[in-house]
Design goal:
The chain has about 280 residues and is an alpha/beta fold. Helices cover about 45% and strands about 15% of the residues. The longest helix is centred in the middle third of the chain and has 15 residues. The two termini are about 25 Å apart. The chain has 13 helices and 8 strands.
Amino acid sequence: MEKLIMAAGCALRMDDIDLSEAGNAQAGGESTPKDKPAILLLHGFLETLEAWDELATLLAPRFRVVRIDLPGHGISQTLGEVHTMEFCAQAAAAAMEQPGIGRYLVAGHSMGGYVALEMLRQFPDRLSGLVLVNSTPDPDTDEKKKERQRQIGIIKAGKKDLLAIEAIRGRFAEGNRKRLADRVEEFETMAEVCEEAGCIALLNGMAQRADSNPVLEKTDVQVMLAAGKEDTLMPAENLERLRGLHPRMQVHVLENCAHMAQAEQPQRLAELILNFLP
């Protein structure tokens, strides 16, 4: 069920999926959404909750699936010139309080992973597990901060749509762009509906985010990282470095996949999530 809510002083679009009848028909069970473990899905930059469409459907028979448009994206509200990851995490956690969901698994794609890591920092007792999808606990490098400023400049020049096309197509593996042409177009449409002010606020927030590696070192929450083998934003050497830094973290490399695992390899990603926690 989709609705607009207020969370941490921000108007958010939220989707609390009830596919229990379909799931029960397959499993022969009689469970209700409240009986299922919950999972919160957090999208990436220039995306909306529709980024998770395939994965949400695959998970719904086993999970109560909740998705939101993060502040500044989709039809959620933009508040000010900077949306810190701390603020986005507070909004996401407040959204989960409204339906009375106490503990839940959270999965975040790219920027959504930064928000999920901040949730782990602020609200560790609420998380049953954390899944990073094409994301990293590392803060922005100086080079990456400069790139975010370049993107802000493009948006302020009134060329956000060009930035969206450049960013979205580059996130898919070259071999998948034709195969998933309809889905690529859907992601481009998601980017188009994200308002300029919200994009700028989130770019500023991502550039300011803290190093989350110390959080992962100390946490008792189970963590998994899934990234594409062809992801140029998460090259193999970075994955190996993170694997060495966090030996308790599960790390999975997805074949035939770049930066959009939830769209390029939804079946494999769903399988990993379904098998992640006992």
